[in-house]
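Homework help board

Subject: predicted structure for assignment chain

Our instructor gave us this sequence and asked us to write out the predicted structure in token form, then describe one feature. I got the tokens but I'm not sure how to describe them. Can anyone check?
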Amino acid sequence: MSWKIFTKFFWVTVGVAITALGLDLFLVPNKIAAGGTSGIATILHHMTGVPVGLTMLALDVPLYALGIYRLGLGFGLRSLYGSVSLALLVDLFSLYVPVPTRDPLLAGLFGGVLVGLGLGLVFRFRGTTGGTDLAAAILRTYTGMNIGMLLFVIDGMVVVAAGIVFQSWELALYALITIFVTTRVIDIVQEGISYAKAFFIISDHTGIIADRILHDLGRGATAFTGRGLFTGNHREVILTVVGRSEVTRLKEMVYEIDPRAFIMVADVREVLGEGFKEYGRGKGM
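My token output:
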């Protein structure tokens, strides 16, 4: 096994373990069924006492069979490691970990953070845990619907079912909070926290501004031609990316040169290349 493959499986395993802890510490004991097969398993666990991990695995087996039939052998097997290890760790950790809180809001928030962090690591290193992701991919072959929309529908049905079974719409609302937190944390883990800003600068003095960016800030810049739809005039637009500490300095620099300049600033989640970070550093291969 190559080092890259080992690294990938190591971080997928870490992600699965964190996800299992989020379920066992916060979500399952507090009846928060935040979508997915884990949500269904949480409902069935509190109804019948069947272990959550075993239920998750039982739900995934027919999905794998159908997934291999509809999507090919590779797709189904790709999910197998993450799904099996998650099911095993959920049932293993449930025997030993304490329940730190019975407050459903705290449980929903912290459970969402842990599950999001764990799944984010799994996805970042190109793993998957099967479950409703696999179900959505299968349904897409029948319906043609967008996978994101299918996931929303499936998770919504699980949340509604939890509200009915537990006779508490408050728990269903807490589950929605958990889903929101989970998805946001997954995005942060995969894309990173915004640490840079992209500037689009439109000015009659782009040459001077570009020179100051290159020599005073030491940043690169790209100029491309745009046409104002109101005036019909062609003007150069400068695109540059700077660190957060350089934002105010660049604004002052531009308006010192051209008080009438138009600036648009946007968050940048990740920047690869000279002056920032190299591709592959800290990412799954």
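Reply (TA_rk): Your tokens look well-formed. For the description, you could write something like this. Residues 223 and 238 are 4 Å apart (CA to CA). That's the kind of observation they're looking for.
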